[in-house]
Specification:
The chain has about 100 residues and is mainly alpha-helical. Helices cover about 75% and strands about 5% of the residues. It has 3 helices and 2 strands. Strand 1 and strand 2 form a beta hairpin. The two termini are about 15 Å apart.
Length: about 100
Amino acid sequence: MDAHSKKKELKKLIKDQEKFQTEGSDKFDAKHLANYEERLDIVEKLIANEEQTNVLRSERVDEPRGDKERGMDENRHVDDKMNDLGQAHRRLMDKLLPLENIFDK
């Protein structure tokens, strides 16, 4: 499931839990609500990461001009940023997967 679908699903789950809470229903579970909110926060960060990665993809230069002073071409700067975003994406996924597995077994 992509990040946008997860965000939509989590918002619905949070809305349902908040509805149960206001109604005083037995279906309300504070642990589930906290889990959903934490997962939503991580998913929103993943979406922002994805958008930054897409912006960087459009910055790539087809025929890079060399940077004589630093010994790097123009794409090297973009590649470094892409690598950083890739590492951030992996860290966010490492946080998200255990949270999903707590209640979704």
